[in-house]
Design a protein that fits this description.
Helix content is 42%, strand content 15%. It has seven helices and six strands. The structure holds farnesyl diphosphate. The site of farnesyl diphosphate has 18 residues, from helix 1, helix 2 and helix 3.
């Protein structure tokens, strides 16, 4: 990658197209998700090498519970397999894993796997990988509002002290900067309940590449496109 390139500090990705990738090959959707996991692995490695500090990926939305049970089972199993397959490499590469979303609906087995990956990678300082699991932006904001309301009810916070910073600090992403670049694969051009608060000044990049075909090269293309953007944040240059 060109040395002059501006590298986004935080990239967030809506990984879409696993099902279509599988269908094109006459495979089961679960095989598409497995290929998606391999693409995630390649993308994490590339992002850390490029110097990205935060990478957030939308791996399972609150709406995804409505999928057929067999696909849900395969996805839950994939979380466990993914943890086993990738934890050693993530540790080696200095990648710290965080989970954003409501973990309460996952089984004990899935939660144990998530505890293992976050625990074992906790010392990673090169890049943070946030896995959005049972995540949606509206549920995140609702949860944040409930927390703030509780503080007001307890007399710990005055209503007028609920400012933008207080809201940001109550979201799952409290420890992360807002994403500079949001990528969505598979040709769909929508946010699908992802990071609606945090995306206020994000740059968007949509590509027709299906998620299992994404990797180092496609990531570089997205960063090149980002470099052509003029971020004005509502100001005049
Ligand atoms: C969207 O494709 C993808 C998902 C709902 C699952 C994303 C999961 C992975 C990339 C697997 C690896 C990650 C973890 C942490 C397990 P889709 O199924 O909506 O594709 P389609 O729109 O073509 O049907």
């Amino acid at each position: 990658m060109n040395q002059e390139m501006k590298i986004p500090q935080h990239i967030a990705i809506i990984m879409d197209g696993n099902g279509r990738w599988a269908k094109q090959r006459g495979k089961d959707r679960s095989e598409g998700h497995f290929a998606g996991m391999m693409a995630l692995r390649a993308t994490v490695k590339a992002a850390a090498e490029i110097g990205v500090k935060y990478l957030t990926v939308y791996a399972f939305s609150t709406e995804n519970w409505g999928r057929p049970q067999a696909e849900l089972d395969a996805l839950m199993e994939l979380v466990c397999t993914g943890v086993e397959m990738n934890t050693p490499e993530l540790c080696q590469e200095g990648v710290r894993v965080e989970i954003i979303g409501d973990r309460s609906r996952f089984s004990q087995k899935v939660n144990d796997a998530l505890d293992r990956i976050t625990g074992k990678t906790a010392q990673g300082e090169r890049m943070t990988l946030a896995l959005a699991l049972n995540y949606s932006s509206r549920s995140e904001i609702t949860h944040a509002m409930q927390q703030l309301a509780q503080k007001v009810a307890n007399g710990e916070l005055q209503p007028q002290d609920i400012d933008e910073q207080a809201i940001s600090q109550s979201l799952y992403t409290a420890s992360m900067p807002d994403p500079d670049l949001i990528i969505r694969t598979s040709g769909e051009c929508r946010l699908s309940n992802f990071m609606m608060w945090q995306a206020s000044y994000s740059e968007f990049y949509f590509t027709d590449v299906l998620w299992p075909d994404f990797g180092a090269e496609a990531l570089e293309e997205a960063i090149k496109a980002y470099n052509e953007r003029d971020r004005r944040y509502g100001l005049v240059k």
